[in-house]
Amino acid sequence: MNILEQIRDAVVEGNAGQVKEFAQKAIEEGFGAAQILDEGLIGGMNIIGPRFKNNEIFIPEVLKSARAMHAGMDVIKPLIVSSDIQEKGTIVIGTVAGDLHDIGKNMVIMMLEGSGFKVIDLGINVPTEKFVKAIEEHQPQIMGLSALLTTTMKQMKNTVETLLTLEPRPKILIGGAPITQKFCDEIGADAYAADAASAAEIANMLIGSN
Ligand code: B1M
Fold first, then answer.
1. At the N or C end, where does the chain have fewer CB atoms within 10 A?
2. CA distance 99 to 131
3. Is 147 in the pocket of ligand 1 (CB under 6 A)?
4. Ligand 1 neighbour 49 (Cβ under 6 A)
């Protein structure tokens, strides 16, 4: 079993100590952050997802895996986020109201910061008013919304509807497992990104630096 598979399995087992140790070892073996993220950390969560869905495991196990995954993200973060990168612009990001999922959002943040953006994280369960207030306060070029539940897609739509009425307004970038380009077009957001790496690419396109 290679080191990325070991990371994946340690995420599945929810063993944060091992995930840290293996992630460090993977870096020493020359694996890049993106590969450790995709094949190791996300690989583990992709195994957890169907098991959770099929009631083979329950919330405590999922949270244990989530914590293990965060421990791995802490190890690879310095590889992604280089402190001497000049800030390109500000992005405010949050998970919409009613939704408590933040693992994917936090990955998106890591990639955005790694790409040179200043990111203001509003956290989870963010009501529309809080997004609006953050726009007034931080004047971001981009507003990022994440949703992981089909039930909170409706909330995302409501929030986007309000943001579209602001003048001037930031570009709106949306993402999350149930979100699609079709949904993005339907609700009038400016862009959809399927994963953390493309979120950073698309953010660059939105501010015209690519
Ligand atoms: Co929840 N949950 N969960 N969960 N959970 C899902 C999403 C689910 C698909 C599991 C399932 O049934 N198969 C299902 C949703 C079904 C649906 O809506 N159709 C589900 C459910 C039902 C629930 C609860 C309702 C369960 C319950 O209580 N009965 C409950 C809801 C709580 C709430 O939010 N109100 C719940 C709770 C939880 C936990 C708290 C236990 C935990 C969250 C912990 C945390 O986030 N801190 C949890 C988890 C971990 C999951 C699964 C297993 C994994 C999600 C994850 O982190 N994936 C998930 C199953 C699955 O997705 N396979 C599931 C890894 C992550 C890297 O991927 O978040 O997709 P993802 O992010 C990607 C992209 O989507 C994209 O980039 C990321 C990186 O590549 N992306 C963006 C994300 N945001 C973006 C924003 C962007 C751009 C790209 O621009 C701004």
1. N
2. 14
3. no
4. yes
pTM here is 0.85
Q: Whose Cα sits closest to atom 18 in ligand 1?
A: 149
Q: What is the pLDDT along the chain (210 residues), one digit of tens a residue?
A: 899 999 999 999 999 999 999 999 999 999 998 889 889 998 898 898 788 878 999 888 988 998 998 899 899 988 876 545 456 899 999 999 999 999 889 888 877 886 778 899 999 999 999 999 999 999 999 999 999 999 999 999 999 999 999 999 999 999 999 999 999 999 999 999 998 878 988 999 999 865
Q: Is the CB of 59 under 6 A from ligand 1?
A: yes
* Neighbour tally for 55: CB within 10 Å: 7
CA 176 to centroid of ligand 1, rounded, Å: 8
User: How many angstroms separate the alpha carbon of residue 147 from the centre of ligand 1?
Assistant: 8
Nearest to 98 by CA among 80, 124, 133, 65: 124
d(CA 99, CA 148): 7
Domains of the chain by range and CATH? 3-82 (1.10.1240.10), 90-208 (3.40.50.280)
Question: What CA–CA distance (Å, rounded) separates 188 from 166?
Answer: 14
